Every structure is written in C-alpha cells, then in structure tokens.
C-alpha cells in the first residue's frame, strides 16, 4: 500500500506512489485529461488522471466528482516546475481514486468573488479557501514563534483569569456576567495586573489568551474578542523593554518568512518588506513624533489631509497620525514617553517630567500602526497610591496590587502584543476579521 | 562585573563569581554566619555571608534583611551536596549584597501552616511559596509539552471563539453576557464544534484556551474557569484516537519528568508512578467496567463502600467508581463505548448497537479519574439530524454544523484534555485549585 503523506511533504516522495487524503478544490476536464486540484489541509497539489493510464471507472469518477468531495487519491509524484498548487512544483499522476463522500448539493462558495457578509455567514466553509487557509496557517506559526521565543528566554507561561471582579478602568467597554452570589464578573481586557503579581514568583512571565472589549468600534482594526500575549519582566526598565520587543518581533517575522513562504506567496505578500524587520528598530519620543506630525501637516497641500494630520501635544494618535508616522520608516518604530493623561494609571512617571510617562508603543510599518503597547510600571507604593487616588479608582479593589509594591518591589516593565493585528500586518491584508477563524465584531457572533 | 545568572543555570558557574537578582525567602543567623535562602523565579539557592569575608555593613545588612526583600546578591558559586535549595547542591559565598527594597511591614505569609481561605485571599503572594511555585512551573511545562507534541504531529492551532451564540446543550451551566444588539452571548464550554469545521480546512487542529462552566459543583475536581486543549482529527476512527491519546499523554508525562525533576521533588511526588506512563494504555469497554464494578461491590465488606460502588448498566461513573476502576491499573485506562444516553448528541453510534456510542474517556491512575473525554463524531448528515431532533436541539442553530457533513464529510474524532486535572495528577496534589495561578470557584473571584 502506498504511504499516506501530507502535501507539505511531497518533495520527499518524487518518483514514488503515495496516497493523499483530502478534498477536491477544483476540477478541469480536457479531453483525455482530468486535473484535480486536491487540498489536504497542508497544501494544494495538482493530480492528473490520463484516460489511458487509469481504469475507465476511475477516469469517469474524476470527470464528474463535485467540488469539495472528500477523496483518497493515489498516484505517482512528479516534479514539474509549472505545476500549480501550494507549495507548487509537483504533480501526482493518478493511479487510483476513492470517494469518501461525493458532495450532492451545490457548494455555496464557488471559486469566484462573493460579498463579505455572505462569506462571513459561511465562515465555517470560507476557511477552506486558499487565501483564508494561508492566513490561518501563518497565524498558527506566529503563535508558535511567540511561545517558543518567550519559553526560550526565561519566561514562564502563566494563565491569568478571564473572569475578574474589579472593573479597573470603568465598565463601559467590559462584558459582564452574573457570577453566583458574587455579583457581576467582568471579562478581562488584560492579564497585566495579575502578571505583575506573577513576576515576583517567576521573574519573567507571559499570559496569552483571549481578550474582550465591548467597544463600539467598527473599524478594520477592531474585534470584540481577540488574542493578546502579555509578557511582564522583573528587573527591567524602559530601554531594556524596547530591546526585548525588537528581538521578539524580529524573531516572529523571520520565522514566518522561513516556514511560511508558500502561504505568503498565496497572499501575494511583498516579502522584502518583512525581510527588513531586524533589530534595532528606530526609537522616537512622543515629543519628536508630535513635531514630525506638525511638519507633515504644514507641508500637506490637500486641506483634508492637513486637517486629518492636525495634532497638538497632549493628544493621543489617531489612525491618520499613525499611518503618516509609520510611512517615514521601513521598520516598526518605537514611540516612547507619551503624555501621562492619555495612558493608564500604572505607568512610571518620567523622571523630572510628571506630565510624561515611561510608556512605549510599537507601530508597524506600511501604515499598519500600533501592534504593541507597553511601559515601565510604577514600583513605588506611594506613587502608585497617589495615581489611584488621582484617577479616583477604588483603592479597596487594588489592595492586592498595591501590596506587590510593599513586599520586595523591583523595577519592572511589560507589554501587550495584539495577535490579530500582528497577523494582519505580516500577511499584508486589509481587514483584521480575516486574521482569526471565527471573528467577533459588534454585529457578528455567528457562526 | 559578575554575570547575572538564573539559579537554574548555577551548575555551569561553579568557582565563578555571579550576581543573582531575587528575593529573600528565608534567613538564618548563627554567630558569624548568615544563611539567606534566595529565590529568583527559577530556583532557590543558599547564600552564605561569613563575617570575616564581607565588609561589616554587608554582614549587618544580611543579619537584618527582612523576608521577601528584593536584593542583588553577588558571590562565588560552590558545589556542596548538602546545600538546600531547588535544584540544591550549590551554595553562594556572598561577596556583595545590595538591597533593592527592604520590606518594612510583616510579610503576611510566614513559612508555616495557614488556613486555605487565608492563602487563597493572598494568592498574589502565596504563589511565591516553594510548593506553589513548583506546581505552576510544572503547569507551564505541561502546556509547552502539549503544544510541542501537537505542533510536531501535523496539528494546526486554531483559536475557537469564547463568545458564542447558541446554547448547544441547555443554558443552565453557561455564563452569559449581553452582546450589543445580538442578544445574549454565552461563554463557550468547548471549541469542538468549531474545530469540526476547522478540520475540513486543516485536517488536524487543536484549540487550547479557557473554558467556563457555571456549575454549582464544589468538589476538589471542579473550577468554574479552566483551560482545556481540544484536538480534532480528520480521517480518524476510535481506535486511532486512542493511539493518539496514549502517545500524547505519555509524551507530556515523560517531558515533565525530564525537565521538572527538582520541582517534583519539592512536591514529594512519587516519580516511579509517572515513569510507568508509556504506551500502550489498557482499554476496557464500558460493559467490562460495569462488570468490574459489580464484582467490586459484591466483594466489598464495608456496607458504605458497597453502596458507593453500586452500579447499573446505563449509569455514568461517579467519583467512587472512577477511583475504584483506576486502582485496578497502574497506567491511565481507556473506557470506551458508553451508553448513548449519558453522552453528547454528536457521538457516532456503535455499529449494530444504537444504545452505545463510540466514545472514550481516559481515567488517570492513583484515583485521579477522568482527564480526557473524547469520541468519534457522527459523519452522516442524516444520523446527525436524527440525533438533533431526538435531543430536541434547535436545528436552526446547528445549520452550519450540519453543513459540515454535506460538503466532503469524513470520519473524524477528537478529545478534550483538562489542563488543571492533568497538572493535579502529575503533581500528585490534592486539590485542583492549586493547579492554576488565580483559581475561580463558585465562591471565589478574588484576587
């Protein structure tokens, strides 16, 4: 019996008879030849039935087999540089064909353009399409790269809770659920505060799980449910944090380039833009970014563009600002030292400039914008308490968090990387909703 | 300057001067000697200050430094088989000591026995204790082993949604949250149905994320929020599923043995019970399990035990049944072919025995009980629809799930492994709440 192989292994089987288990992605019939493009979950390969080489019933089956039918295809692997597929360059000369299930109805997703609502309604089928398959394979590689880099650099994976009691920064963007006799539990927007407890036991930690924002944002950069990795590091200041981030991001991108070349080709991604992603990354202060934006606005001739770029010190960046800034660099750019009032209460004040905090965001190039937000955290219990009072947060709910600064406090820093934003950038796609298998947006919770 | 190292690297630095960054776990003063047990997140090591070897102010600092103060300790590494610590066998002769923060208040958790409620209220500090640190280090290794094995065996990591529309099997054990204009969204109890969509695009997939059960169970085996890994496999029947499971579980256990020996010693774990965990695992049918239980009940002399073991064909196993069964084996045991009525609607019926389904649970030895539930899934659209009607489930909500059986259906199987139950068993601990950093139970959502 021929060995059952995966399409991604096909280069190792040239000249041998193999069996593929998969689905009919496309079919072309030209006289005595039938071409079946078979996908098996690991790739796409052209399989050819030539009428004089196979029994008549096998040829007939190949001529008529409907799209998406499940099959076992047996045949001999040939190298052929013209053969389509992913990775491509190989075809299988069919010697046997067995149908597992012949599809009886019309498959809803033909290999043509469909409207996005239709595709999202059929997401359970749309993921079979080559481009969606490629994106989600890249996503899995990004996840593995994230975990491998952290695990290999002394980080301990700690899963922080999703169901949390206190609403740290107001409840308007939080999902809540009744929790037995304990009132309402909120779905966590971050594991950071818990990770700050964890570093005192493990030094370097990360959580990597789903995160929830009940925000009414309807942009191509927002999901209500997304995955975030949040590393937190003891004995680490803002400069070391930026070093860690640039090493981390570069590793992820280079690993995708190494392992997911065929998938990037499916997406038509310009890989030279990814090859440039190596340390160090440029670092500019918020002050400098504000000056650059002022200059861009001054130079803009289009009044609409001038208005979009309008910026004053103290504002947070909007999407047009991020886009304009990232277009000045061909690598991700760090912007550090944001105004205290646009950032969270736990960020360490800049020495001698209390209106500025030791925060740093990382903006992805090509207009993709923010993929990381991070900071050095306040390590003094007195300063932390002062900020909690300043922002009128409930001190009682933060008691355990304040205690971390009383029992062996150390300088520490951390960041959060949005998985889907990172995948969207690496894939070079338009909309974040394709970077997760079953996206959740304010209008969509099905399937 | 001495290199900064982690305690887990100490064996590589014998005879050299190094710096450790960490916290004072314990302190003993005997005349001219002070012993500091330092923990740095990666281990625990004894550091010794001898009055004549260090400046007077360093010795004084060592004599008085409070528990949990953060410090930089510099000194020369010596091998000494008697030295306590984790891994142990090394000590550091202090040459310099720098305090980052001297703790000013009494640390709440002294190194003595505390009540469990007190410890859980102080979970943010309790995780610093050696036993808790060891358990959570083992947990992180279990997670990595799970992911490495799956990633290396052709599984693609797919994150399934937490916020889901349909309540598949009733809403009584579900947490729900208002979701914009879309009604109530429920927190998923499983990613399985979505993974069944995913296998048709990726062949083998897994999800690994938090899972929620609003069950009023208050046992040592239940959490309301726990992590579960759920592999799903195309072209796989029940026998192949059991082969995959026994390879997978054995790999996890052997990897923990290899990488977490010192942590298992901290917990006093009998590692010989873990060394036995190699394939194959015994397989017994539900029918045979029922007979074994009947016999055990008949042989039991204690009337209370006899009553606890009482069992009739058709029942699901309770905790006493699982304990009694697992005590007959020194490896995990598969029990397959449960009655249809105690299992979920999507399980493939046993050929010729519609009252039995192609399900299989894996019970861990030493009385730990169920860690895996799995089955072959129904692949026929007609049979699936029949079961949905039989169980009076809303057909409309399952439309997409039924479609999977129409467009290229294949035999497929999958399972779910509870992370915390697995960690509890491997660590040999009593209660599941210690197998996660911040446990959630029906009475606890803080900190």
Structure, described:
The structure is a homodimer of 447-residue chains. By secondary structure, chain A is of the alpha+beta class. Chain A has 2 domains: 7-101, OB fold (Dihydrolipoamide Acetyltransferase, E2P), CATH 2.40.50.140; 124-282 and 329-435, 2-Layer Sandwich (BirA Bifunctional Protein, domain 2). The first copy, chain A, contains 14 helices and 19 strands. Chain A has an 8-stranded mixed β-sheet, with helices on both faces. Chain A has a 5-stranded mixed beta barrel with strand order 1-2-3-6-4. Chain A has a 3-stranded antiparallel β-sheet with strand order 8-10-9, with no helix packed on it. In chain A, α4 packs across α14. The interface between A and B is large, with 92 and 92 residues.
Supply the key terms.
OB fold (Dihydrolipoamide Acetyltransferase, E2P); five-stranded mixed β-barrel; homodimer; BirA Bifunctional Protein, domain 2; 2 domains; eight-stranded mixed beta sheet; alpha+beta; 14 helices; 447 residues
Q: Secondary-structure blueprint of this entry?
A:
The structure is a homodimer of 447-residue chains.
Chain A: E1 17-30, E2 33-39, E3 44-50, H1 56-64, E4 70-79, E5 85-86, E6 90-101, H2 116-121, H3 123-126, H4 130-151, E7 156-157, E8 163-164, E9 176-178, E10 184-187, H5 192-202, E11 204-212, E12 225-234, H6 238-259, H7 261-266, H8 272-275, E13 283-285, H9 286-299, H10 303-309, H11 319-326, E14 333-336, E15 349-350, E16 353-357, E17 359-364, E18 369-377, H12 381-390, H13 399-403, E19 412-418, H14 419-427
Parallel strand pairs in A: 3-6, 7-11, 13-14
Antiparallel strand pairs in A: 1-2, 1-4, 2-3, 3-5, 4-6, 8-10, 9-10, 11-12, 12-19, 14-17, 15-16, 17-18, 18-19
